[in-house]
Design brief:
heterodimer, A: mainly alpha, two-stranded antiparallel sheet, 2% strand, disordered N terminus, B: mainly alpha, 3% strand
Chain lengths: 349, 75
């Protein structure tokens, strides 16, 4: 593609009349497809799609740059310098931002929108090496320099206005045209009619489809900007959320002391419980041992008593002789008889 | 009006008087670097004025094409 472009340009240099028109129309048709999307993307300042756009555009840039530089080198070197000194008032409008090093080679659409610069970084900003460092990047101007009839910059009209009024430049154009025609500097041949018809078609196309193409391009640009803005907003929202969370964590950290107090209380309670449990255990054990001793002593006393009683009974019963037994029985009988007589006497009395 | 005398070659073209034109031309930088930087400057000026805007018109590119066609016809 690149060599083809160079080849076409070289040929074009050699044949002025036919091929200049053909090449111009070729450029127009071939690159008109690129116009709507290309002009937007190459002017878009996207900080997040930096590298992607850069890589996409590098190829196009090289092609256009070679073609443009070959075209402009011999002519612009002369004109550029003069132009640089002529339009002094326009030179300080925009800083040299070195956004892209290519000249647009396609033309279609009356309006094309550039990037909206607020907060977005240019694609090749990182390559900027001049001492100027403008951050944040200033937004792009809304409209370009005024151009009348699409090809005459407004400055010419302003230049001639003081001397010749409003119709000055038109009279100049007419005069030049008639001069070139009459002196046969411009020869009318078949190419003239071809040029006229091509011009008519171009003008008709631009007038008819210009606004719609411009609106479409604007819409594309808006979408891109909206996407980038959305990314930015999302990032800002997440960062703000992170700040909120951090504050909340700090607030939580303030409650640390209360947490530690509660934990201290818990531990103290555990210790207290443990201590009391052991106290209880100690008292219980001691009481048990003392009860045992008490029971032991009681047992001793009881056993001694019973043993003594048994022994006394046994000895008493053993000491009762049979003689004593008879005497005691006889005594008992006499006592009983007396008693019986007493009760009988009492009963009848 | 002028704060200090400026050497001729540093003036802009519109400020150069007609008699100084020769010395002005003689003092300009014609090294390849100078030529390329001049081309660069011209390109940047044109680009920033007509193309690198939010709502460009057809003028920016149309002027280039028409100028190219005219130049190639005349030269």
């Amino acid at each position: 593609m690149e060599s083809l472009t160079i080849h076409i340009l070289l040929e074009e240099f050699m044949r002025f009349d036919v091929l200049s028109w053909r090449a111009a129309s070729f450029f127009f048709t071939a690159s008109s497809l690129h116009r709507a999307s290309w002009q937007k993307t190459q002017q878009m300042r996207e900080s997040y799609n930096n590298m992607q756009i850069l890589s996409q555009h590098l190829l196009f840039r090289r092609i256009s740059r070679v073609s443009a530089s070959l075209v402009a080198l011999c002519r612009r070197a002369r004109r550029g310098r003069d132009k640089g000194a002529l339009c002094s008032k326009n030179s300080t409008l925009h800083p040299s931002n070195m956004l892209s090093r290519l000249v647009i080679v396609s033309a279609s659409g009356l309006k094309s929108s550039g990037p909206l610069g607020a907060g977005l970084v240019q694609a090749s900003r990182s390559l900027h090496t001049s001492s100027q460092s403008l951050a944040p990047v200033p937004p792009l101007p809304e409209k370009g320099g005024k151009v009348r009839h699409g090809i005459f910059p407004e400055e010419i009209f302003q230049l001639l206005y003081p001397k010749t009024g409003v119709t000055g430049p038109y009279m100049l154009g007419t005069g030049l045209l008639l001069y070139m025609l009459s002196k046969e500097i411009y020869v009318i041949n078949h190419e003239t009619f071809a040029a006229a018809s091509i011009g008519a078609v171009i003008i008709y196309g631009v007038k008819k489809f210009g606004p719609s193409v411009a609106a479409f391009a604007d819409k594309l640009n808006e979408e891109k900007v909206a996407k980038a803005q959305e990314v930015k907003d999302l990032a800002m929202a997440s960062l703000a959320q992170a700040i909120e969370d951090e504050k909340k964590e700090q607030w939580r950290a303030e409650g640390r002391s209360m947490l530690f107090d509660a934990k201290r209380n818990n531990v103290a309670m555990l210790l207290e419980t443990n201590y009391r449990e052991r106290l209880h255990m100690v008292t219980n054990e001691v009481k048990r041992r003392l009860d045992y001793q008490v029971a032991l002593q009681n047992l001793h006393i009881r056993m001694e008593q019973e043993h003594m009683v048994n022994w006394v009974e046994k000895s008493v019963i053993g000491s009762i002789t049979p003689q004593q037994e008879k005497e005691s029985i006889a005594k008992c009988i006499t006592d009983l008889k007396v008693l019986a007589k007493a009760t009988q006497a009492r009963a009848t009395a | 009006m002028a704060d200090r005398p400026v050497p001729v070659v540093e003036k802009r073209l519109m400020d150069v008087k007609l008699g100084e034109l020769g010395s002005w031309l003689g003092g300009r930088d014609f090294t390849p670097n100078g030529i390329i930087s001049a081309v660069r400057r011209g390109h940047d000026r044109y680009y920033n004025k007509y193309i690198n805007v939010k709502k460009g018109g057809i003028g920016g590119v149309a002027m280039l094409l028409v100028g190219y066609m005219a130049m190639s016809y005349l030269w």
